[in-house]
Amino acid sequence: MAETRQSIHGQWTSRFAFILAATGAAVGLGNIWKFPYIAGENGGGAFVLVYLLCILLVGGPLLMSEILLGRRGRQNPINSIRSIAKDENRSKYWAVIGLMGIVASFLILSYYSVIAGWALDYVFKSGMGQFAGQNAQSIDATFDKFIANPWALIFWHTIIIGFTVFVVARGVQKGIESAVRFMFPLMVVLLLILVGYAMDTGYFFKGVEFLFHPDFAKLTPEGFLTALGHAFFTLSLATGSIMMYGAYVPKQSSIATAAIWIIIADTAVALISGLAIFPMVFANGLVPSAGPGLIFQTLPIAFGQMGFGRIFGTLFFIMLVIAAFTSAISLLEPTVAWLMERLKIMRLQATIFAGIGIWLLGIGTVLSFNAMPGHFLFGMNFFDFLDYLTANILLPLGGLLMIIFTAWVLPRHTTEDELNMKGKVYYRLWLYGSRFITPFAILVVFLGSLGLFNGF
Ligand code: PFF
């Protein structure tokens, strides 16, 4: 029965370790690379407000649901959901949620690792002083030349996957937990150093104003959709990663408290990253709305012009690599757990198999920037296609099914028990939010992302 189920993969040493690992999974390229540029593209403050609302109404309830399912099932996402459904005499086909999660995590890691590889390359570019005194054209040319070379991208992609495999193969406590325990605090220290540097530019309050002064005229319907989609991505929801990490949580820990800490930490890192990045952008007369190139093109120009830019630029990219790495390990875990349980193989073998598969798929993303820039499917190149398929389809659909399964399909006493919230008013808040608000909000994004609201 659910109460006595144990994970064959191990357990965190404490609830704190879980919070750290899950926050490490949540904080990544999404917070430091993506959040600032989508905020920049969507006009800043008003977008940030909508994003915070999405985190609260969709992210929070779903994060609790996913941890709950993981801890109750204590297996890979497919088997966890199948067992829970069986315990409660519900259809075993709900396990499709777990399957979608595993597929999403596999696909996301294949391109996530390539982008994390760019950041790793930029640690060296910055460290060797390649940005010093350069102008916008020459920095753009450096970036274009870099991504045009498939061998360079494959090299860094291999290193990222290699290290990810190395850590995950060592297991939950010795691998994932010990890596996150020193990496996450280091990342936070680097971030704070960079904010201090940004304060020194004299443009800090321009950054604050950009992020927090809402100008609703700049908010488009797509901005809403982007904000909700990002709430999923940034909290690592619906990929099975959080479910796996939840499977290793000790029984007595409070899920709600853990979820609150993860959300606070993830949101704080996104906002603080914005406060580190935008003042540097403004101080150097650059534009905040450069899109995905904000970090790899705009920011190096700023570092190239600023005092001690070489040191702080290097620290910035080291921070980005660490943040991405603690997310990458969480993305590998669902496939590894599934292979171990399904094929009854050892963790080492499972990790190597999964790593090879993901590495191979990543080559498709690498080639999207050089040899295969043309259309792969539906007018998109391979990377854009994977990004679209995961962020706009698999995550929202998986999240929608997951919230329906936990809040509508599972009996109340089961969720109340697993959340340790018997008779608490917060339980009802979670339940009614999860039943009536979260699914509708997700539905709006999902239909919106399919273009159904175009023309409104
Ligand atoms: N949350 C990570 C980020 O913001 O970069 C990305 C991510 C990690 C998504 C793990 C999904 C996941 F399972």
List the helices and strands and how they pair.
Elements (H helix, E strand, L loop, with lengths): L14 H12 L2 H13 L3 H29 L3 H11 L8 H32 L8 H12 L2 H20 L2 H28 L4 H9 L8 H14 L6 H7 L7 H29 L9 H13 L3 H35 L3 H22 L13 H28 L2 H7 L6 H25 L7
The protein binds 4-fluoro-L-phenylalanine.
4-fluoro-L-phenylalanine binds next to helix 1, helix 2, helix 5, helix 10 and helix 14.
Write up this protein.
The relative contact order is 0.20. The chain has a single domain (2-449), classed as Hydantoin permease, CATH 1.10.4160. The model has no long low-confidence stretch (mean pLDDT 92). Helix 7 (150-169) runs antiparallel to helix 15 and helix 14 crosses helix 15 (347-368). The longest helix is centred in the last third of the chain and has 35 residues, at 309-343. It starts with 14 loop residues before the first helix and ends in a 7-residue tail after the last helix. The protein is globular. The protein is mainly α and 456 residues long. It contains 18 helices and no strands. Helices cover 76% and strands 0% of the residues. Residues 25-26, 28-31, 105, 108, 233-234, 236, 239, 241, 327, 330-331 line the site of 4-fluoro-L-phenylalanine.
Features of the shown structure:
456 residues, mainly alpha, Hydantoin permease, 18 helices, globular, binds 4-fluoro-L-phenylalanine
CATH-derived architecture: Orthogonal Bundle
Number of H- or I-type helical stretches: 18
Report the average pLDDT across residues.
Answer: 92
Question: What series of H and E elements makes up the topology?
Answer: HHHHHHHHHHHHHHHHHH
Largest sheet: none
Low-confidence stretches: none
Q: What structural class is derived from the secondary structure elements?
A: mainly alpha
The percent range for helix content is over 70%
Distance between the termini: 50 Å
Strand content: under 5%
Radius of gyration: 21 Å
Shape: globular
**CATH topological fold name:** Hydantoin permease
Number of domains: 1
Number-wise, the strands total 0
